[in-house]
Amino acid sequence: MKREIKKAEGKLGILLPGMGAVATTLIAGVLASRKGLSKPIGSLTQMGTIRLGKRTDKRNPLIKDFVSLANLDDVVFGGWDLFTDNAYETANKAGVLEKSDIEPLKDELIKIKPMTAVYDHKYLVNLTPNNIKEGPTKMDLAQQLMADIENFKKENNCSRIVVLWCASTEVYSAQTDVHATVESLEEGLRNNDPNISPSMIYAYAAVKLGYPYINGAPNLSCDVPAMVELSHRTNTPIMGKDFKSGQTLMKTILAPGLRARLIGLDGWFSTNILGNRDGEVLDDPGSFKSKEVSKSGVLHDILEPELFPELYGNTYHKIRIEYYPPRGDFKESWDCLDIFGWMNYKMQIKINFSCRDSILAAPLALDLALFIDLAKRADMRGVQEWLSFYCKSPQTAQGLPAQNDVFKQLEKLENTLRYLKGEDLITHLGLDYYENELFA
Amino acid sequence: MKREIKKAEGKLGILLPGMGAVATTLIAGVLASRKGLSKPIGSLTQMGTIRLGKRTDKRNPLIKDFVSLANLDDVVFGGWDLFTDNAYETANKAGVLEKSDIEPLKDELIKIKPMTAVYDHKYLVNLTPNNIKEGPTKMDLAQQLMADIENFKKENNCSRIVVLWCASTEVYSAQTDVHATVESLEEGLRNNDPNISPSMIYAYAAVKLGYPYINGAPNLSCDVPAMVELSHRTNTPIMGKDFKSGQTLMKTILAPGLRARLIGLDGWFSTNILGNRDGEVLDDPGSFKSKEVSKSGVLHDILEPELFPELYGNTYHKIRIEYYPPRGDFKESWDCLDIFGWMNYKMQIKINFSCRDSILAAPLALDLALFIDLAKRADMRGVQEWLSFYCKSPQTAQGLPAQNDVFKQLEKLENTLRYLKGEDLITHLGLDYYENELFA
Amino acid sequence: MKREIKKAEGKLGILLPGMGAVATTLIAGVLASRKGLSKPIGSLTQMGTIRLGKRTDKRNPLIKDFVSLANLDDVVFGGWDLFTDNAYETANKAGVLEKSDIEPLKDELIKIKPMTAVYDHKYLVNLTPNNIKEGPTKMDLAQQLMADIENFKKENNCSRIVVLWCASTEVYSAQTDVHATVESLEEGLRNNDPNISPSMIYAYAAVKLGYPYINGAPNLSCDVPAMVELSHRTNTPIMGKDFKSGQTLMKTILAPGLRARLIGLDGWFSTNILGNRDGEVLDDPGSFKSKEVSKSGVLHDILEPELFPELYGNTYHKIRIEYYPPRGDFKESWDCLDIFGWMNYKMQIKINFSCRDSILAAPLALDLALFIDLAKRADMRGVQEWLSFYCKSPQTAQGLPAQNDVFKQLEKLENTLRYLKGEDLITHLGLDYYENELFA
Amino acid sequence: MKREIKKAEGKLGILLPGMGAVATTLIAGVLASRKGLSKPIGSLTQMGTIRLGKRTDKRNPLIKDFVSLANLDDVVFGGWDLFTDNAYETANKAGVLEKSDIEPLKDELIKIKPMTAVYDHKYLVNLTPNNIKEGPTKMDLAQQLMADIENFKKENNCSRIVVLWCASTEVYSAQTDVHATVESLEEGLRNNDPNISPSMIYAYAAVKLGYPYINGAPNLSCDVPAMVELSHRTNTPIMGKDFKSGQTLMKTILAPGLRARLIGLDGWFSTNILGNRDGEVLDDPGSFKSKEVSKSGVLHDILEPELFPELYGNTYHKIRIEYYPPRGDFKESWDCLDIFGWMNYKMQIKINFSCRDSILAAPLALDLALFIDLAKRADMRGVQEWLSFYCKSPQTAQGLPAQNDVFKQLEKLENTLRYLKGEDLITHLGLDYYENELFA
């Protein structure tokens, strides 16, 4: 049942639309890891192990020894941004990393300069860019991007490319007819259809060329039928959307716990304060709506109110994101859960998470890039649901409800790796430990 | 592979050593459910469903329709206590349930009177009991308990019995030679060995008669080789220990989340304030030690510091329980986690859980009683690790590390039920949803 | 220097525009206190003492023994509401008091029926009233109110009347020309000027008749030059505005603490979740603006950024109120303060206040009513700044900055009482305790 | 009434027994302020203003312009420590200040080397010192200290000296006969009475020489009759004890707020986690007891349970300090208050204060030193109760209850300064703003 996977040979180019706080934190961390200055903490591909066989077998290889992944030394970063700052300048402005962590990487960071980016004011209202592409049609912009990608690949001598959206959340938009088929989408690109956002142009450019594409924001991007169809035609893996980093990560850790114990939930109030560019962008109601939709969905498939109307049928779920400049990237969330148990008695849980947006997101971006490159080499195409683990709002096969429980997502990821390598899947049954003694 | 399980016919007697807050909350809730006054929220056996087959099959029967479990109408409660109060009096004194929830059950509660209990001041120092057994040896006390059990079974016309320890935490004691074999234990009972605590005498009485025994507190009780051996000889299922209800439940929900994401952990400080009898008992350092040992262990097997020394090798874990009378049963915990991520950047999580001890514990007690009765009818004997889901410090086969991750515990429980009924085990692989389209 | 104060003889009618949660909680508590069923906790007029003389004199009479206040037995409640429910019905619907606390008062509560109220959709958008006055002009409505008041006074045989606004927050409106003089206001009433809100009509009716008026909400109401002028003409004390109960109370307790220690403040984020009618009304942006303005102002005069630009010149202050139905009246606030100290090092304070809106407001309403009645009997007129202690946004003499520090407000209140009774004012100097020994 | 105060001319030597985290943070901050690298935030003597006259007068001079205080440029630091590290080494080890804040001060810090210290294992159990004085009697040690002080004064050309205890908390000890009179104390020093702790030897040395002494820890030190008597004989001001910095500061901010509003208090639970040397010392039960006694007392005089038995008669107050190494100096406190209001309804306040011990304490140490030097120049002697503002457990005249309310303490301090300079005391009465209009 084991599958043929091509070796990860040569260089892997990771191209990032959006070279802001997350992207530069990702790049800095990879550079620092290469130099032995820090550990790539939070990254399954770098530090994670995978249990094989029985609990008592004690077989726990590193994931990167179990499956063939691009080595960090073989990764090359590039990308596009609305501002001309190089990665060194951006890392300093972002306020994520200490100066003392950036300086040792200065020479390398300074060389990473963003290519001109695709911009549309309709999809991003609170910023004033200075580094954008011009072109008569969206198709023309897509072709410029394709040229950028191929140039980068050649110049950097890459054998493989992955494109990973790390830019701001776009203003909310719903799926329309233009997103239905490859043909309608290409027609729309040629006609400047207003429903095609910048992130979709990047996705188109990548997938058209057969390069894996990942969407780290809640935009539609590759999550429309036309893009899925294109990914099948070009044998390209795609995945999204929205890095599951702070509050939503916590929610998909905690909600499965409530569900496991059938503890009822009257309400879940979530607020966030943050002061980085992400916060500034989300201060716009349209952008917030994209994020809100992405964040709101996670409770439903975890709690299954259809199965448990008495417990979860009336759950009031409210999410707020507040721009609060004193915090910069040091985001803080406060969650308040009104729960009830045995005989309807009420209880409360409050969670206060002081996190750092980009620090949590960076390893997810790295893992997604390396795993989707694996998928490409394993000849996997279309939606990679097994990477749901990293996404706030995982893309799935049409009509298939997403799995948001972070633990089921991890098991899905791990069992997928075991499956690809022909190992037994883990079920946690474990009756065999007692086999000679359990049954009378 | 499906197993033969005897039907749950006739009445099931649930006998409780310790008829305090947890026990009376359990009883009141079952009575109220029978009368349709409330739902048995938090109980998998009553409200839980189990997914069978694929996600899209939408087969989610109630667990109690999937396997044969004792019906709540067929359950009869009895027990022992150090105080003479009947269940109605105790429920009123315990301060858990509102008067308006107790009154409709008065007639039934008032009839449930505790039998005289086994007491040893060495193992319980902060209380002054008024309803205790006398006898020259511990074996003599065990025989009195066996007589109590058989009388109760006859008088109440029960076909099956389960014994479930709901009493206070005993003072800490470690395993000694007397606990090594059935023979040494019985010798110790006859010789009044000081290392045999009251809860162990209850466990012996139950298992000797072939009745399943569950330990809801952190005492040694049935967690010694002698008791495991006896349970095999008498074909009896046993399990423990310590109901996993409040803070530890939260810990085994959250720690797997950190581990899943490989987020490092510098320290975890946990404090609890509570003002009920449990708090009073735990104000004694010896009793607190039992609890501390039980609560401390959970992080190790979840975080696996051997595999991740950089992440979890120096985790400082400190637990405090503070007697704080203003709170009564309305316990509150505060947890403070010092975590670190990408490039060693530090973050914090704080959790404030305002819970109600007995409200959380009651459904666990019910499920454990009904599931261990199922095990007995399925001819399962010895340690029932598949019920770890309910325990702070799960008993396992000798030498086998416990599984404390609540999600793996639930999967173990569910897959065990699927296994017993011959259904496919769930692995969350899910590649088949994409089978015709996934691979190029 | 002692002033002549008329005795509090006869009955005092307290008339409440708005007989909702706060009003019925106030009434129920007064009735319960009369019957000895509970204590009027939180009320200075009922339980407060006042220190007289030196610390070592141990003279601490009850305030109500020190100055002549209406006795609770002499208080009669009445009022107006947009809904026809009597006080018993409203108390049950409000979800503030337990049924067991309301039942013993049923006979009295049921008799308190609201008179028809003045309503203007422009000022209150989220409710649909069923008990409103009709009239061609606002002056006509004012005259109906005056008739209501005089009828109530006669029927209940009252010697004195106080009118106290306990209704919802009105949509925000700023001061305009119509509010400039008594003449322009009366012209506006006759002409249905849209800038005259319902609460202003109540205020006009009361003050015109010479009855003290208090504004418990953040509306303009009596806080315009015309109303102040009228209060001087009719020798009437007035005061407002907005009961200082939950989060803002906490803010005016804590901010003086930061200011005392010159601890810098980068930001203060305040969010509230509540699910009562107040929450529903404040879900409307216009009503929220009234509240936001009222809540925002308190930091400025406490922190004095003009004096301390390095500490408070850039304080980012953000306030949110979120309608969250699971909570009902059991409001919860979360405050997050980003502070800095010595050498600019940053620290944080977080406060989580689980309070009950109406429980906190009721004693303030009682005190304000009894103290303003005292003011009337002491021949005091116009703005009663000494009652700032109770107000989120205290009314002051034109051009005089408000004092929001709750401790200075209390000292102002207490020293005013001492002044009225000719006692020494307290300065906390206290060098005299050491006089023979302090100086060399 | 204005007093004669000598000008602050020449250099002021501030001598610190205990040159650890607090002391080096104090010194570093003063050096940085002199160089214009940072502001002395949190210091009333440096940044504080004082209101003079009426609110509308807008007279708010800086305190240091209002009374004559030593200029920071004229301050010289020295001291004693149990370890030989110089101030630069200690600042780096203490983990309070960032390296980048210490480096610019290196040259000056490195020169500040501790003199050998007085040590007694009985009073400090968790440390192993390497820099201690030897001597046959405690009197001999006192004389060595006096020689140290006079040498320092001469070498540094100081006109005045202040001694300020910044060392660890000593093991708890109660007052005994040896502390009764100057004579018994001196006899005890000669006889090595075990009830004389190191901090008392420092206090004796300073006061005997007529130099002001301040006690920043909860030890007895100068808080015994013998020391008060000596301070009168030598015309020396003294004050203590225990810097009021983190959780207790918060408590004396919040408790006056509850008391102001007569909100009842069922319980107040306070826990602290900290990982610095202070935490290590307080892990010893004897040292913790000193701290516990100091921290526990503050609620009593603020809440006055004698006056309000229904509100504060049964308040359960529990304080815990937990050594938690992951935190270092970045202490965190969690407070949980169970309060009740109108009709006995219960509410809760929780406070989470992430503070930095030494950052909060340093400005208090500076202010105390400069103000007590002022007292000396104003010919004030004995206990300086007007400096209570800075103390967890303020020393007072015998039999006089302490004032712990931080706002009354501040008013006492400010009115004392106004009194010394012949300005009107502030009472917050403020009726005069309305004088022509208030009374009918």
TrEMBL record, chains A, B, C, D:
Enzyme class: isomerase
Superkingdom of this protein's organism: Bacteria
Transmembrane segments: 12-32
Signal peptide: none
UniProt GO MF annotations: inositol-3-phosphate synthase activity
SUPFAM superfamilies: Glyceraldehyde-3-phosphate dehydrogenase-like, C-terminal domain, NAD(P)-binding Rossmann-fold domains
Record keywords, A-Z: Isomerase, Membrane, Transmembrane, Transmembrane helix
Pfam family, one: Inos-1-P_synth
Stretches assigned to the Myo-inositol-1-phosphate synthase GAPDH-like domain: 246-358
UniProt cross-references to InterPro entries, sorted A to Z: Myo-inos-1-P_Synthase, Myo-inos-1-P_Synthase_GAPDH, NAD(P)-bd_dom_sf
GO BP of this protein: inositol biosynthetic process; phospholipid biosynthetic process
Annotated EC: 5.5.1.4
Family statement: Belongs to the myo-inositol 1-phosphate synthase family.
Protein name: Inositol-3-phosphate synthase
